[in-house]
Structures are given as structure tokens and as C-alpha cells.
Amino acid sequence: MQRLAQEREVLRVVADQHGCPTWARFIANATAAMLGRVELDAARLRERAGLYHLSSSGRTSWHGFASAILAARIAAGANRVEAIDSTEYPVPARRPAYSVLDCSKLAASFGLAMPAWNDQLGEALAQQSGAYE
Q: What does the mean pLDDT of the chain come to?
């Protein structure tokens, strides 16, 4: 988004598909924390075996995500993010309109709190900035 914002005056981004952006570093850290909370014996591992969803909390559209990225990076008014319908942005595979995951089982099983997606975005952008300084 940051690169596209430098190349285009208007970014047209889908606004009718909702999900929860999740930073890969959060996924890695949460996975390590879960493993650290399970005693490494076969019985304890079997007790917690199963399917878990892991994502940040909250939800946003692709348009909302793009807007948040640019708001954090680019001075107000420098670029405009235009909301479009998914039919205006055809892709080979159909995308669900709502793909927010329920992480309550993971939170209950491992005592993890899911941070808000926009907090994770702030941390990721801060780290990205620090990498270039």
C-alpha cells in the first residue's frame, strides 16, 4: 500500500470484504507462548490437540486496512483511498465477504489475549521504520 500510494493519486480498495489483519511476528510469538505453556509430555499435548484459530482481534475491510496504513505513513490529504465493491476488483478465486476468525478456544486453552489488529499494525510499522533508521 505504501508503494502504491507513492505511485498513484487514488487507491481503489475493496470495502465489502472483512477480516482481521494479523502480523506474522504475532503469530510466531503466540505459537511460542502456547508451546511454552504446555508441558512437553504426550498426555498434555493430546489434551490440547485440535484445531485453533489465531488472529488479532477486531475486524476491518481491506479498505479500512489500507486507510490505516496510509494514515500512519502519509500526511493527510497526500493520497486518497477510494472504497470499491469486490465486483469492481475481479480476482481468479472468490473471496468471502466475512472471514474473521473466532479465537476464543485458543484464548481459553492457552490464556492468550489477542491484540487488536490496529495495535499490531502500529507495532509492525514502527519496526519497519526502525529497520530503515
A: 88
Cell 468471502, residue located = 96
First to last CA, the chain: 20
32, containing H or E segment: helix 24-37
Predicted confidence at residue 78, as pLDDT, reads 46
User: Angle, to 10 degrees, between the axis of helix 24-37 and the axis of helix 117-132?
Assistant: 110
DSSP 116: B
Q: Please count the structural domains in the chain.
A: 1
- Cell 476488483 appears where? 89
Q: What is the CATH number of the domain that holds 40?
A: 3.40.50.720
The answer to whether residue 132 scores a pLDDT higher than 70 is: no
Closest among 94, 26, 1, 16 to 60, alpha carbons compared: 16
| Cα torsion 121, 122, 123, 126: sign | positive
Question: Residue 40: pLDDT above 70?
Answer: no
CA quadruple 129, 55, 68, 66: dihedral sign: positive
Give the residue with greater pLDDT, 80 vs 15.
15
